[in-house]
Specification:
heterodimer; A: 731 residues; alpha/beta; Rossmann fold; Dimethylsulfoxide Reductase, domain 2; 4 domains; 9-stranded mixed β-sheet; 6-stranded mixed beta barrel; globular; B: 257 residues; alpha+beta; Alpha-Beta Plaits; 4-stranded mixed β-sheet; two-stranded antiparallel sheet
Chain lengths: 731, 257
Amino acid sequence: MPLTLTRRNVLKFVGGSIAGMMVTPLPWKLLDDVAIWTQNGPWIPKVPRGPITTAFSTCALCSAGCGIQARCVNTIPYALSGIRNHPANNGTLCPSGVAGHHLAYHPLRLKSPVQLFRREETIEVQPVSSEEILGKISAAVAISRNAGEGTLALLDQRPGRSVSLFYRNQLAMHGRGVYLVSPTDPILITQCLDEMVGTSFGPVGYNLERVRTVLSFSAPVLDGWGTPVQTSKMLAHRGSSGQKGARVIQIDSRYSRSAQLADQWIPIKPNTEAALAFGLAHVLLREGLYDKALIQSRALDFQTKGKHSYFDLVGRFTPDHTAECTGVSRDVIVATARALAAQGPSLVIGDGDSGGGPLGREAEMAVWGINILLGALGSNGAIVHHRAVPAPKEFSANGLSPVQGVSDIPDHSIGVLLIDASEQGDPLPWSLLERKLIPDQSLVVAFSPTLTGLAQHTHYIIPTPAHLEALTDVPTMLSSATGTFSVSSPLLRRPEGTMDAREIMGKIFEVEGTLEELLKQRTSAIFESRRGRVFKASTGSSVQLTELGSSDELWAELTAGGMWMDDPVRSKPLPEFHFMGRSPAAYERMLDAGEGISSSNEPDAPRKITVLPYGRRAEVGGAQLSPLMTKLYQESGLHRSSKVAVLNPATAKEFNVANGGRGTLVTERGTQEVTIRVDGAVMPGVAEIAVSPEPVGQAGTEIVQEQDILELIVPDQAPTWRAFRATLQKA
Amino acid sequence: MDQTTVKKSRYGMAIDLDRCTGCGACLIACAVENNVSPGQPKVNERNGTTWMRVFEVQDGRPFPDAQTAFIPMMCQQCEVETPCVSVCPQNAVEVDPETGIVGQIPQRCLGCRYCMTACPYHARYYNWWDPKWPDGMEKALNPDVAPRMRGVVEKCNFCHGRLHEARARAAAQGSRQINPSDYIPACVEACPVQAIAFGDLNDESTDVALLARSERAFRFLARLGTETKVYYLSGRDWVRRLADRELARSKKETLHG
């Protein structure tokens, strides 16, 4: 049949072709290809290509000293994992450690010195030369040395490092230099023990292997307080492992992670820890659950002629009175004291919270007191002596400036404040520091890799290398039973224009030398001590130090993810001591700490809420959080930032705010907007707020000042910021 | 075994909820390993991308008796009637018969999100934004995993890049069977309290197979019959009871047992 070209046939052909094409792969292939083309544009980052290598180092984000193994492409780390069998972390890492290699790319990273100008909510930076800043510091230091107005102070955000010894040494030689640490620093907790004993008791740590019961006074014992290995051991009895672990009792005003994970949570009114410690001691004394002979022979203020003895003090805190002060029931107080005595060895931990602030000197002494009564401090207790990590002789010869808490120095006394924020440390309310400065005359300079935390409040910042860009050492952790030393070696090349803290201080004090030389001297001192064991990352096992041939060999092991661990020493017997310390009016101070009206009890503060700030180690205020931490904060809500207040439903109702709604917290220092979260587990009358700022995932067009809950703290308040009062309004 | 035949595996996980501390190390390790980009400035719990998410759940009792558990939730690797496979119009979801791993092929994905609707575990995430890292951070991406583009769905695949690496290592040694210690997902490796076990459920000697048979083991939404390969362990009744409830998508919808 002849084919006739008609309009109808053309349309039939076209229609048939289209219909037929639909059953061929062509349109689907086209669809696929279009999807691929549109999805693989040049704006999609391409993964790096190059040789894959492995490198070892030590994480220096906190003092746990976890060994890290880095997988690198083109020598740049792209993934970190723990070193297997490492004594601190045994192959695991915390979230901050896992993303530690990202800190070098932080959106607020600084690579050249800057001068800061604070506007209402933003910060403007102007580049300056490091010579200009160093010149200003040197001039101010010279003035302070010549008895000018104001002292030179250095705030070390990570005390205990070798460079910290260098600072203390230089400040001691300067004559008018002050070495400051955060009031939450563990050094100050052991200073409380020194005050009780009247001399340096020596470094102490915790032997958690020995412990059957742990009583924690708000310390985050199951949430980053110890090393991952220690936390894992404390949780070992959970699940199906069949292992034994310690029973953990958490005393906490907050429903903290440790409270959630502990075997028992004892909620307590904010700031009444000292009263509860005295109440527990009362039960121990009343029921004779302590070593009478030891206490009567060593405790100089246990029972004295007057009415100001420890016995008298504790005698006032009957279970009923303590229950009234703390909100903890009488039965719980009595049962807890009995459990501590019966299910020993027991350990009581003060130590506070890295974001929530210290317990306070008196409360810490009250906690030490219970430990002494329980026999935790002594030859067979869980609190053990260890020796200080050997250091070069020049430091002991030239003297060291004493360690002081920021709250311990007079107001308006600092002329030059240098803040070493090169390593992450505990947060500090700026208001607490600000009041120590001479108004309008002081010079404040930070050494920091990023424009975060306290560095945002300074006049100048000299940029330092970021985490894993420079050598640094990791000090011994408070929870460690022996002294430890490890070195974080660089895995990334540091940018031009950055200077490490040793270089900066060397230029200020005109002292030759480098950080590497300092750390090598320390390594030599350790090697010469001929003691301890060394974990070798290459073999995953430890050897005696004496098996290493030279200091260089030790250095090679330490810079490749190794760790030196001192030999345990026999604990010294408890010397004569004062339960209440030796300071004048010790009894009155302790009594005030115990009887002090908690902020939540203030009768004259209607419509105010008690704010309980808290932090997580390496994630606290000003911490240089990896941009990827948005996964934990904004994207999953697993960790909460300073912008979220968690309230009990009854409290939310009282303040007329709803779950997911907005509220405004107001104090004399300012206001802060928060998102309300309602949680039935939270104590009524309080707002739990994290100190952490929200992680910055991407750089914005302007630098916004961090909104940290600690900014709201009124400077006249006590040196601790565990709880403060604020007005909560519906936004 | 003959070197030319490969033993079929059924990779699975066992997560001990009585040990999980909710630290989030697994979540971050996952994002690092799989090149999941940091959140954009306006990101939130509903539009963020996390291949695994750790839910904080409570037993519903008021202060001071409340109890909390943390539930890491990722793709449950359904073995039977895998819902996301059956709804995908693009064949962008496949179950690897050799490993039992449910894989997502972003190049095929059209972003229709049927799979997200079908997933009973809310374990799939849609890329609302093109992946973007702060300046210079692209140099620190995992070279074994390609970043996914805007407009596609992504999810946990038991760190497929690591499986490839383990296979390459085995091949280099002349074997077709991988060494189990060479293939450990990033979340398992990172967990500071070692709450996650991983391995071949077909191999009865592995920790994960033993734990899956434990009295404490349970699976979420087992009544759906999808035979998931992610097991959870808890001795707490109220936590086990959650397994039969629908999972909340965000913290706003806090679970109560």
